[in-house]
Amino acid sequence: VAVSTNKEVDGHIPNYPSLPPQLVCQLHNLTMHADVETDEVYAQMTLQPLNAQEQKEAYLPAELGTPSKQPTNYVCKTLTASDTNTHGGFSVPRRAPEKVFPPLDFSQQPPAQELIARDLHGNEWKFRHIFRGEFRNGLEV
Are 83 and 104 in contact (CB under 8 A)? Predict the structure, then answer.
């Protein structure tokens, strides 16, 4: 509240007796960030409170909402010393990249593609996704 009113917080929590316990809002301008020094991830967003009529008009079950522009599939892997090797790659089970990366063209030898990702600091990371398994059920690097 102090930020939205541009007033300094003087050590106590303001009392707003007419403010309802919940404010239904519409989300606008969601942006993900990471602290430059600590890498702590946070989101910056704009929330617009909706009046009762807007709440009735805006409510949609999740399956009817606007599709997310961000991928919903993800894979987590904690990298260990045994995951690394001399060529700078690491191996994961094949099903992991199949869930999150575009499909490989198995007519190429070897099947591979370049992936470019940008982290929350804006740094660009380039990866080469290559299939090194046998019988198409092996490992991806």
Answer: no
Q: HEC states along 108-131?
A: CCCCEEEEEEECCCCCEEEEEEEE
CA dist 45 and 131 (Å) reads: 39
What residue ranges of the chain are covered by domains with CATH 2.40.330.10? 81-140
Tell me: the pLDDT tens digits for 54-78? 888 876 656 555 666 665 677 777 7
Tokens of 132: 């090194």
Q: Which two tokens stand for residue 41?
A: 């991830």
Distance, CA of 119 to CA of 117 (rounded, Å): 7
pTM above 0.90, yes or no: no
Domain 81-140: CATH architecture, name and number where available: Beta Barrel (2.40)
Alpha-carbon dihedral angle through residues 91, 131, 136, 97, given to the nearest 10 degrees:
60
Ordered alpha helix ranges (H), the chain: 2-5, 52-58, 95-100
What is the chain's Cα-based Rg? 23
